[in-house]
Amino acid sequence: MPPDKSSSFAPDMGCFVLRLPVARIVILSWIVSEYDGLGYVKTENASGECIAGETPGSDSEGRNGYVSLFFPEGKRDDVLELLGALRKEGMPLDVLHEKRADHTAEDTEREWTLEDFDTI
Question: What pLDDT does residue 10 have?
Answer without folding.
Answer: 77
